[in-house]
Design a protein that fits this description.
single chain, 33% helix, eight-stranded parallel β-sheet, alpha/beta, TIM Barrel
Length: 385
């Protein structure tokens, strides 16, 4: 093979690896949070996701039981390296290597682990010491993957909250906080080098409940509304979701990374909340998630980045009864704890919505009834004590 042909051959391999590392099947994913003591076992969750044709999921740790359950499912999974590990991993390359060898490498390729989220909502958060260790931790995890020849298959990222922005309205005014920039800029530079996208947790729900007097609920819910007009770009927005994404693109552009892709790592709407969270209703949650799913399935871009197809992980798979914070935090689930749907957006639950998930028998305690969907018309009952 001539030198030119060899160069072309290896270029194809490198390109293929880069494509693999940013894999996201379609445009729709769901966060699989597990801060609960009453949700279905992981095997049931895999069955539920496959029945709903959910092919992308994100977990917030690297639980081995979960990773084993996803083996052979074809579902692409992003695992999380918790904030509590960042300090140690940032100063210890061997610790990063051991974490990858324990929590990623043994499960490949059967379990399709396509990403590691290093920390969650670090920059802009309250622990500034974590701001300083985030990039070193990210680099050590990436270097471990690279040494194991997994960097082309498993992407490294770090999702952010809206707290990293100084402003996001109108979208063209999107900009990072000055206090965040000394940490954000080098992080973006590294992600640019390894071709990782910018992950943002964006919640029109939170924006609306924080300022209901000035935000049109229909604008937040993808319903018919006058929308907003951005004079700088001459673009019109009829929903807040796209406006928040384009605010991220504007901030990246100002920071010098206009070619970086934005992927939504969390978005959703609570179905129940405290008295000061009046918008947290089943009706609003259904409207938001139904319209969001319909929007994502169109595989379109945003007004400011029309050629960048929008991709998002919805929060969350289940209502999580042990989550701290306001009532809304425990009620973002598309599905209830028993596997039935919280409301209809086109998915089929593990059990009919009226079914009970627990029965009690004297002398036996609580017996969990777990249902696996085999088809729309058939359910197999498995009883686990």
């Amino acid at each position: 093979m001539g030198s030119a042909n060899r160069f072309f051959f290896w270029s194809l391999i490198i390109s293929a690896n880069l494509v693999t590392s940013s894999a996201f099947i379609g445009t729709y994913g769901v966060n699989y949070g597990r801060i609960a003591d009453n949700i279905p076992h992981p095997e049931s969750v895999v069955t539920l996701m496959k029945a709903a044709k959910i092919m992308n999921t994100r977990i917030f740790d690297a639980d081995h039981e979960v990773l084993k359950a996803f083996k052979g499912s074809g579902i692409e999974i992003m695992v999380g390296l918790g904030n509590e590990f960042l300090r140690e991993i940032s100063v210890n390359e061997d610790r990063a290597m051991n974490w990858v060898k324990e929590n990623v490498e043994p499960f490949l390729p059967g379990t399709r682990i396509v990403g590691i989220a290093v920390g969650n909502e670090i920059l802009g958060g309250g622990d500034q010491e974590l701001w300083e260790v985030l990039l070193p931790a990210v680099k050590n995890v990436y270097n471990a993957l690279d040494r194991l020849q997994l960097a082309g298959k498993v992407q490294v990222s770090s999702p952010h909250s809206a707290a990293v922005f100084a402003t996001s309205y109108p979208p063209s005014a999107g900009a990072f906080k000055e206090s965040v920039m000394p940490y954000m800029k080098p992080l973006l530079e590294f992600f640019s080098q390894i071709k990782s996208p910018f992950y943002i947790n964006t919640y029109p729900f939170l924006a609306y409940i924080s300022d209901p007097d000035h935000i049109d609920l229909n604008y937040a819910l993808f319903k018919k509304n006058p929308g907003i007009y951005d004079q700088k770009t001459n673009l019109h927005y009829d929903n807040m979701f796209e406006a928040q994404i384009d605010a991220s693109y504007a901030a990246l552009e100002k920071a010098g990374y206009e070619n970086m892709e934005v992927i939504v790592s969390e978005t959703g709407w609570a179905s129940y909340g405290d008295p000061n969270e009046a918008a947290a209703t089943v009706s609003n949650a259904r409207t938001y998630n139904y319209n969001l799913r319909k929007r994502l399935l169109k595989k379109k871009g945003t007004p400011y980045r029309p050629k960048r197809v929008v991709k998002a992980y919805v929060f969350a798979m289940f209502n999580e009864n042990l989550k701290p914070g306001p009532t809304s935090e425990r009620n973002f689930g598309l599905f209830k704890a028993d596997g039935s749907i919280s409301y209809s957006i086109g998915f089929t639950g593990l059990v009919p919505s009226s079914a009970k998930s627990f029965i009690t028998m004297k002398g036996f305690g609580s017996i969990r009834l777990m249902f696996y969907t085999i088809s729309a018309a058939a359910l197999v009952l498995i009883i686990s004590l």
